[in-house]
Structures are given as structure tokens and as C-alpha cells.
Design brief:
8 helices, 7 strands
């Protein structure tokens, strides 16, 4: 099972209602044993299913919470449902997430521990799976109308969710003092990304990228999660 290398407690990544049920936090740091116990306990009690869930079939999988942006779990396989729920815990572990390597930017070990715990709680035998990740690194001038960019982004995301239910997680940060930021999409497969990024909303967002960003870069990765979630690996995507 993956080891949790970050020091900040996994409990800090839970909704406030769940945090209050687990007082084993001292100065924001817990032992690995405590993390493992709490994660297994919550998954076993069924509280796992309610993490970030709007209903049993709908999940908040992006910064947008209105209905057009929700992930329909009923249309996914059990593998995809478990991973989408695990991704509800995804959060940066460094304020430099926009510039550090992607694998070092987020609490991946915590996500995969939770995934393993949830699979075990559901008596599900996880077999090796791969997923498609897109990373967008950018820099915007201070004079940029960010409200316009935000509107374009929201439209593009709703469009992607309408055209394909395969965007398991969409996350973006806040521009730093130099205007640098990172956004990422985690798709169930490459084909979903092709469909989800082919509409007018996405094209409008890309035109704005060319005209309004001072710098931008797209990276594509393959995420492999091994049998029983005992290993995970990020490698460059090749078509």
C-alpha cells in the first residue's frame, strides 16, 4: 500500500463535518498510523460515499458546483467511481504548485491511500488501470481581465461535462505574485479529452489563451495505478 509521505494530516483534507469527528490532530501533524486508521475507519463506515457528493449519483469534481458541472457517477464503472471519489481529496501540498513537477505538486500519496482503502471497503479487487492527464501552466499579466477568462473557463467545463462524462477531476489554482498558475484535467481516457475539448467553448478559451496570456504550456501525462493500488506512476503521454 502507498506510503503517505506528506506531513500534513489527511484529516485536514476532509470536509469540516468529518474533520470535527476526528480530533487526532496535533499542530496539523499526525502519525502515519493515525492517518491509516482514520482513512480505513471512514471508508468502512460508508462516509466515503458522501465525500464531495451532491447525491448518490452526482459528484462535485471541479471548482464549479452547479448542476451543469457535476460528474454523473451512475454512468461510470466502479473503477472510475472509486477513483473520482478519491480525487475529491486532491489538493496542492506546496504553494509553488504552478512551477514544481506535477508529481510533487499534489497529495497523490493521500489520494491513493484513500483509493486503496475504499476499494478494500467495497471488497473490490483493483486491477491496473491508466488515466489521461492534461496540465496547463500559464502566466497572465496583472492587467488581464480575469473575470473574462473565468467565464470562458466555466463555459468550457460545462461543455466538456455535457459532451462526455469522462472528466473525473478538474482543478485550478490562484495566480501567484508573478501571475503564474496551474490547471489540470484528469480524464478516464484520451478519447474523452478529444471529445470534451472539441466544442466552441473550449475553442474560445484557447483563443483567449493565445491573446491574453503572456506564457502558457500544455503537458500530457499517463497515470498508471497498479494492482491493489500498490503503486502509481506518472509518465509522459505518447499517442
Amino acid at each position: 500500500m502507498p506510503q503517505l509521505t506528506e506531513a500534513v494530516s489527511i484529516l485536514k483534507q476532509l470536509p469540516a463535518s468529518l474533520q470535527n469527528q476526528h480530533p487526532h490532530v496535533e499542530d496539523g501533524i499526525t502519525t502515519l498510523a493515525t492517518k491509516h486508521h482514520e482513512a480505513q475507519s471512514i471508508a468502512t463506515k460508508g462516509e466515503w460515499e458522501r465525500t464531495a457528493a451532491v447525491s448518490s449519483d452526482l459528484l462535485v469534481a471541479s471548482p464549479y458546483t452547479d448542476s451543469a458541472h457535476l460528474l454523473n457517477l451512475a454512468a461510470l464503472t466502479q473503477v472510475q467511481v472509486l477513483f473520482a471519489r478519491a480525487l475529491s481529496l486532491l489538493t496542492p501540498i506546496t504553494s509553488a504548485y504552478s512551477t514544481v513537477p506535477y508529481a510533487s505538486a499534489f497529495n497523490w500519496d493521500a489520494v491513493f491511500y484513500w483509493l486503496a482503502a475504499a476499494a478494500k471497503a467495497h471488497s473490490f479487487a483493483w486491477k491496473e488501470q491508466d488515466f489521461y492527464i492534461v496540465i496547463f501552466r500559464s502566466q497572465v499579466p496583472a492587467s488581464t481581465d480575469r473575470s473574462h477568462l473565468a467565464a470562458l473557463d466555466k463555459r468550457a467545463h460545462a461543455e466538456a461535462m455535457r459532451e462526455t462524462n469522462g472528466l473525473l477531476k478538474y482543478w485550478f489554482g490562484i495566480p501567484d505574485s508573478d501571475g503564474r498558475n496551474l490547471a489540470t484535467c484528469i480524464w478516464r481516457r484520451r478519447a474523452d479529452a478529444s471529445v470534451g475539448s472539441s466544442g466552441d467553448g473550449h475553442k474560445a478559451a484557447m483563443r483567449a489563451t493565445i491573446n491574453m496570456y503572456s506564457e502558457w504550456k500544455i503537458e500530457r501525462l499517463k497515470l498508471v495505478i497498479g494492482d491493489d493500488v500498490e503503486r502509481w506512476e506518472l509518465t509522459p503521454w505518447t499517442d
